[in-house]
Structures are given as C-alpha cells and as structure tokens.
Design goal:
This protein is α/β, with parallel strands linked by helices. The protein has 4 helices and 5 strands.
C-alpha cells in the first residue's frame, strides 16, 4: 500500500504551488525544501506559494526552514508567499517570538497568487 503524500508541488503558469498536507518532521521538512528549490530551477518558476493551512503547529525549525526556502527561491529568481497560517499557529508564533522574516504572507491561496502577480508586475521579466 502506498503511504499518503506529505506534500505536493504543482505548477500553475509561472508559479509553483507547494502544499504541505500534514505535519512534517525535520528530515521531511529538509526533503520538502530540497524538492521545492530543485523544482524552482527545473520549472523556471517566477513565483512560489507555500500553503501551510494543514499545519496546526509550526515550530522554530519549521519557520526557519520556510524563511530559508524563500531566500533560496529569491536567489533562484522567484518570489515566495506563504499562505494559510492558522490563527492558533499565528498566535503561538507571536507569543514565542517567531516570525517569517521578510517573507510575504497571505490569508489563502487566492490572495497568495494575487500577491505574486503584484510582486511580479512590479519587477517584470528582463527583456532580450
């Protein structure tokens, strides 16, 4: 029997949508990071949405990994938006002094894609 997917990475135009389906341990988070950064280059993605709506906990390693993914994506030419942070997770992150750094966040996938479009409109693709 096949085990359920822990995360998925789908392409939508110039963007990648990465959804975390369940809580990931540290090694799974590192795998997610490696897979996503690889796909950014392979798909020549300009934007990345990371959907964490399924997570009811986000520890310091997880939030640092998300910041690292966003920085790696930026170095590869893509903008990252994190979406779906649950209210209880946001509350706990603030209480514990954790943050997402300079990574843009949005309420849900729809708002995340709109934010990517705004960011990319502000810095269009370089011309020939």
């Amino acid at each position: 029997m096949t085990s359920p997917r822990l995360f998925s990475i789908l392409r939508q135009g110039l963007h990648l949508i990465a959804s975390v389906h369940t809580a990931l341990d540290d090694s799974q988070l590192v795998r997610f990071q490696a897979d996503l950064v690889e796909r950014i280059g392979a798909d020549r993605a300009r934007g990345v949405v990371i959907d964490v709506a399924a997570l009811d906990v986000l520890d310091s390693f997880g939030s640092r990994t998300l910041r690292d993914i966003a920085e790696m994506a930026r170095l590869r030419g893509a903008v990252t938006v994190i979406v779906g942070i649950q209210p209880d997770v946001a509350f706990a992150m603030v209480e514990l002094g954790m943050d997402t750094g300079s990574v843009v966040t949005a309420l849900d996938l729809e708002e995340g894609l709109a934010e990517l479009d705004r960011c990319l409109a502000a810095s269009p693709l370089p011309g020939p």
